[in-house]
Design a protein that fits this description.
Blueprint: E1 6-11, H1 22-30, E2 33-36, H2 42-45, E3 53-56, H3 68-81, E4 84-89, H4 99-108, E5 113-116, H5 121-128, E6 142-146, H6 160-166, E7 169-173, H7 179-188, E8 196-201, E9 209-214, H8 218-224, E10 231-235
Parallel strand pairs: 1-4, 1-5, 2-3, 2-4, 6-7
Antiparallel strand pairs: 7-10, 8-9, 8-10
Bound molecules: S-adenosylmethionine (SAM).
S-adenosylmethionine binds near residues 203 and 231.
């Protein structure tokens, strides 16, 4: 059956609803179906018109996420009935958001798809903590990297030692769980023990927390201060360029599944 509608893969931004793009706002205000997951503020869900179908495909407390094939199937099915479908994802859909997989699946099933980039947590959370991810005097290159260990060992893991040598700054998503091993690898790759590092938990929204530490002490400090997900880790001299005076006030928001 051929598709009736278009699926828009839309970035919701990092949490503060004011960081939504104008294009995303326009699509949310006029869509007839919405598919969303956990890291999306409730204020954005309230933008959809009355009568818009809503489908939650994120992780519920104590449960696993909806499996990717089920989400793909929901999107294909909606495209056969609805005209404008918004697939809303936290941050940017193509940055650790599986947006690429969903886009490829939809195209393979004859569904027109459009991507709407969003403000990623890896830039916004450091910014709300006053940390620039590049700096002319402290960092000319930055790497966005996942700290989430691939279960599938047939695929190569992240070369942390190589990154220690090749990138001035690192912005690590989903890195808390493996932080001790990541820090050890970065030190083994040549980063100095006193390299500045930061963790920003719940960036851009009320309850945002910031931890500043040396790389050598980072894993211990994160444990002692009970930092938890969602958090961004920044490693590099850019952390020392932090300008506290420029930090915006995190937004008071309600999430569909509270942090
Ligand atoms: C599956 S990735 C999705 C990233 C998203 N596509 C983006 O561009 O921001 C989820 C991870 O993003 C990071 N993250 C998302 N929102 C965050 C926030 N408000 N504050 C800190 N980290 C956040 C955390 O590392 C979290 O584990």
């Amino acid at each position: 059956m051929s598709a009736r509608g278009t699926v828009h893969l839309v970035g919701a931004g990092p949490g503060d609803p004011d960081l939504l793009t104008v294009k995303a706002h326009r699509l949310l205000s006029s869509c007839d179906a919405l598919v969303y997951d956990s890291l999306v503020p409730k204020a954005l869900l309230d933008l959809v018109p009355p009568g818009c179908e809503r489908h939650f495909v994120g992780k519920r407390r104590g449960h696993h996420s909806v499996p990717q094939p089920s989400t793909n199937a929901v999107l294909v099915e909606l495209a056969q009935r609805c005209r404008c479908i918004v697939r809303l994802k936290g941050g940017d859909p193509f940055l650790f958001g599986r947006g690429g997989e969903e886009a490829a699946h939809l195209v393979a099933h004859g569904v027109p798809v459009q991507v709407v980039p969003g403000v990623t947590a890896g830039i916004a959370a450091p910014a709300y903590a006053g940390i620039p991810v590049t700096h002319r005097r402290a960092g000319s290159s930055v790497t966005f990297v996942t700290g989430h260990e691939e279960i599938d060992k047939r695929r190569p893991g992240v070369d942390w030692r190589g990154l220690a040598r090749s990138s001035d700054g690192l912005v690590i998503y989903m890195g808390l769980h493996n932080l001790r091993r990541i820090a050890e690898e970065l030190l083994a790759g040549g980063l100095a023990a006193e390299t500045p590092a930061a963790v920003i938990q719940q960036g851009t929204v009320e309850g945002q927390r910031l931890l500043l530490s040396s790389l050598a002490e980072l894993a211990d400090r994160v444990e002692q201060e009970a930092f938890s997900s969602p958090s961004i880790v920044v490693v590099g001299q850019v952390v020392a360029q932090r300008v506290e005076a420029c930090c915006p006030t995190p937004a008071a928001v309600e999430m569909p599944i509270p942090f």
